[in-house]
């Protein structure tokens, strides 16, 4: 597994581990009877035989354009077919298109020296980067390994097969290890089928332990300490007893099996009591009362003016979206923020919505319906709740009817919108909720975080186990990436919800299905 920036992952980018005094790629080419110059002109032979050769797939470059500077003193190989694939995406007005353009600019800068790009250009880390060309007319006539590969995957027109073929050539003509780096699971399986070393790109993946359990950490204390905390609301614990607890982390102070109290680690190692109201009050609507300990911790973070970033994991039915919206309305009506913005990604940021009829609001309504459901539940007066006749529903929701939040939406106080057009915005003094944040890539999450101006609070909620975006997984999505990179900051807090409150059926389904 590849973690180029990890200091203890020596098997990834530490080229000194496997340096060997073996023949160079050109010497191997001579032994096989292949022209030395042709091999070098195609980028098949590495500039030296003392470092690993990493072949980057298109999806890795689109996922993290900065990966070109994260392989230290190793050889980076970019197949020419990868450039052709990038060219298809560069015109998109999306994060993927922006990443493709960024890669093109970076490669142009790296190859600006005018040297032969197939023979290797030095990188800042002490390695090289070069283009690799797969030419069927020449390569297939001079490679037994490639002939065997083509018997297994005969479709020469498929880009994945051409990238794999180029990797086969590199493996054949270089003594140093050749490793294909791709986030495409099917590509990984194909590579393993033909004996190619293949690994995922893990520079932005979090440790598996961070998403394996949503249970709250506990800190053992003496009964006298717990009593002192209960009376004063504060407890100072020396560092060795809390060395794995980060700033603003929520824990359970535990003195025996039955004596427990929740707390948050404040500055200078002080655990403080949760500061939450009995209920979140929504004017002319429904009040929301936290139903479990996790929701209490979430409300404490959402109402804390010193915390401007809240991340929340929770499976379906734990109430993460409803609690976040209720807290946003509560804060908005108390005039702590100028407005409330609730958004969701449409699988991946920038997807086109033209296949649905109507205006942009009409197109987005199916994607944003869960947000409207939460607003309906929280803001509808009691008189409009419960079963109604069909005619009554038409009168309430027809031409003459309106929702309690419609006027607020028209005035811009409440915004319910897609995430497609957030690039370039600056969002001041707003309570911003991003639902289903696990569908974002790390670069898209960075785009959202950097849009927040002074006075705004950003709330990212989602379930890392429910991924529809093919470019991320439970450990590399934007939600867990943001949590991992910003944890321990004085403005950041994280809560995991594990108890379902939607219904016994929903909780059983989430756990057992």
UniProtKB/TrEMBL annotation:
InterPro entries: P-loop_NTPase, PhoH, PhoH2-like, PIN-like_dom_sf, PIN_dom. Residues 52-189 form the PIN domain. GO terms for cellular component: cytosol. Residues 1-33, 382-403 are annotated as: Disordered. CDD domains: PIN_VapC_PhoHL-ATPase. The keyword Nucleotide-binding applies. Signal peptide: none annotated. GO terms for molecular function: ATP binding. Keywords: ATP-binding, Nucleotide-binding. Gene3D superfamilies: 5'-nuclease, P-loop containing nucleotide triphosphate hydrolases. Pfam families: PhoH, PIN_4. SMART domains: PINc (SM00670). Belongs to the PhoH family. In the N-terminal section; belongs to the PINc/VapC protein family. This is PhoH family protein. It comes from Oceaniferula flava.
């Amino acid at each position: 597994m590849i973690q180029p920036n990890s200091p203890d992952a020596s098997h990834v980018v530490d080229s000194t581990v496997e340096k060997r005094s073996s023949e160079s790629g050109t010497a191997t080419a001579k032994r096989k009877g292949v022209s030395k110059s042709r091999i070098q002109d195609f980028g098949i032979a590495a500039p030296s035989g003392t470092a690993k050769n990493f072949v980057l797939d298109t999806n890795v470059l689109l996922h993290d354009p900065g990966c070109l500077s994260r392989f230290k003193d190793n050889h980076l190989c970019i197949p020419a077919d990868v450039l052709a694939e990038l060219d298809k995406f560069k015109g998109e007005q999306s994060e993927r298109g922006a990443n493709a353009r960024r890669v093109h600019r970076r490669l142009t800068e790296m190859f600006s020296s005018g040297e032969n790009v197939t023979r290797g250009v030095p990188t800042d880390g002490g390695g090289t980067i070069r283009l690799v060309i797969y030419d069927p007319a020449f390569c297939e006539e001079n490679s037994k390994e490639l002939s065997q590969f083509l018997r297994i995957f005969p479709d020469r027109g498929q880009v994945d097969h051409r990238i794999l073929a180029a990797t086969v050539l590199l493996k054949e003509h270089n003594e140093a290890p050749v490793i294909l780096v791709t986030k495409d699971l099917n590509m990984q399986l194909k590579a393993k089928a033909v004996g190619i070393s293949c690994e995922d790109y893990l520079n932005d993946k979090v440790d598996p332990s961070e998403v394996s359990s949503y249970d709250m950490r506990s800190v053992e204390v003496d009964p006298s300490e717990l009593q002192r905390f209960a009376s004063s609301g504060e407890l100072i614990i020396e560092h060795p007893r809390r060395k794995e607890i980060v700033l603003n982390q929520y824990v359970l102070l535990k003195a025996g099996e039955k004596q427990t109290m929740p707390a948050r680690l404040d500055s200078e190692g002080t655990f403080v009591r949760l500061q939450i109201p009995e209920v979140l009050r929504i004017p002319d609507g429904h009040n929301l009362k936290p139903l479990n300990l996790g929701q209490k911790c979430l409300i404490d973070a959402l109402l804390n003016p010193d915390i401007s970033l809240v991340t929340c994991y929770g499976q379906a039915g734990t109430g993460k979206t409803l609690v976040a919206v209720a807290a946003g309305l509560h804060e908005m009506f108390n005039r702590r923020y100028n407005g409330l913005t609730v958004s969701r990604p449409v699988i991946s940021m920038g997807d086109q919505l033209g296949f649905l009829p109507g205006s942009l609001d009409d197109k987005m309504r199916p994607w944003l319906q869960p947000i409207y459901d939460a607003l309906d539940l929280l803001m509808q007066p009691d008189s409009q709740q419960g079963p109604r006749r069909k005619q009554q529903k038409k009168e309430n929701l027809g031409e003459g009817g309106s929702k309690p939040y419609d006027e607020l939406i028209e005035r811009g106080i409440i915004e319910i919108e897609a995430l497609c057009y957030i690039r370039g915005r600056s969002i001041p003094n707003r309570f911003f909720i991003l639902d289903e944040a696990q569908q974002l890539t790390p670069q898209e999450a960075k785009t959202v975080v950097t849009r927040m101006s002074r006075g705004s609070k950003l709330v990212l909620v989602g379930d890392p186990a429910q991924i529809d975006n093919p470019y991320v997984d439970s450990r590399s999505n934007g939600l867990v990436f943001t949590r991992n990179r910003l944890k321990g900051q004085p403005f950041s807090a994280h809560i995991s919800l594990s108890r379902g409150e939607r219904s016994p059926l929903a909780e059983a389904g989430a756990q057992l299905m």
